[in-house]
Specification:
The chain is of the alpha/beta class. The protein is built from 3 helices and 5 strands. The longest helix has 12 residues.
Length: 92
Amino acid sequence: MKIHFVGIGGIGISGLAKFLLKKGHEISGSDIKSTYITKELESMGMQITIPHSKDAITTQDIVIYSAAIKNTNEEIVEAKAKGVKTLSRKEA
């Protein structure tokens, strides 16, 4: 399964991304800026987009977003327009 995380640099959501990567899922994500967390995730093989961009939403099956992300985020809007399932971190 292809899973994209919006706000992947957060400590909670990055942990979920690592867990799902180890379970064999293809993980991508985005954040507003590059940090040591996003660099670590990239080194693990995740495709990270900095800053957020609707172009990051391609062929994902699910988009999971951080509590800090608003419904107006361009990636959330794009995912919904493409019919991609969106979940909050809490829901995931």
